[in-house]
Amino acid sequence: MADSTIEFDQFVSILGWDAFSEAVSLQLLASSNNVVILTEGEENRPEIRGAFSEEQEDSVQVFSLHRTEYQQMQEIGLGATRSLFLNLDTDETNLITILRMKKHFPELEYMVVLSDEELEETFQSAGVTYAVSKLNISSKVLSSYLYEPDVAECTEDVLTATRNGEDYDIQQYRVTGSCPAAGESFLSVMQTLKSEHRTTPIGLKKPQGDLNKVPAPTTKVQKDDYVLLVTRGSRERGLEKYFGTQEGVLNGSGS
User: Fold this and answer.
1) What is the pTM of this model?
2) Which domains are assigned to the chain?
3) Dist. CA 8–CA 22, nearest whole Å
4) 85-144, pLDDT tens digit by residue?
5) pLDDT tens across 10-69, in order?
6) Which whole-number Å values give the CA distances from 205 to 208, 218, 224, in the listed order?
7) What is the rounded CA–CA span in Å between residue 50 and residue 85?
C-alpha cells in the first residue's frame, strides 16, 4: 500500500474510515475495483491494512491527510477518481466537506450515506450525485423480511458481490464498440444473453438518461449504454468477453 501518489488509472475513493467504510471497500474489491482510502488519522493505517487480504492489497492504497489538505489531494492524483464516498462523523461534516471540496474538485462525483433522510434534498442541491439514507435502506430491507422473507433474502443475495461461481449478482456492463449488442434491439440482446450466457438482462441505462428498468423490446441498444443484468459468478468471464469490458461503471470506462 503505497502513499506517495495514486498508482491506479481507474479507482474509487473513500474519505473516512470505520466499519461501514471497511464493508463498502470489501464489496468494491470483490467487484474488481481499485480503492483509495483517505484517513485523517495516521494511527488508523495498521487497522486499515489489516482489513484486507494479501490478494487484495495490490488493489488498495491508503493516504493519511486532513479533509482540507486540497493541495496534497491534488498532488497524489485524487482528481482522477471515478467517485468519492464521504463517510465522516456527521451529516453536517460531510456537507461542509463536500461544499469546500467542490471548489477544488468540481468534476468529481460525490456520494454520501445520510443519517438524517430529511437532508437528502440539501445534499443534492449541494451537488452530491448520490445521497442515500441508511434509515431508508435498512427499513425497506427489514420490512421486506417481515412480510416477504424469501424476496428479501434473494434481494440481499443479488446485491452482494459474487464470492464464488454459484453466487448470483446484479451487474452492469458498458456496451463497447466491439460488443455485438451495439445497434441491436433490447429484445435481440436479451435473447442472445439468455441463450448464450444464461443471463437475464433487466434494465438499460443511457449515458445521459434515466435508468430504464423495463425497456421496450424495440429499444435500441447503443455504444456506451449500460446493460443491467442478473447473472451467476461463473458466467462473468463470458460476459466480459461479450461486452468487451469488466462489469461496472469504473471498469467499464474506456473504448
Assistant:
1) 0.75
2) 12-139 (3.40.50.720), 162-251 (3.30.70.1450)
3) 19
4) 999 999 999 999 999 999 999 999 999 999 998 998 999 999 999 898 877 777 777 787
5) 999 999 999 999 999 998 998 888 999 999 888 888 899 899 999 899 999 999 999 999
6) 8, 15, 9
7) 21
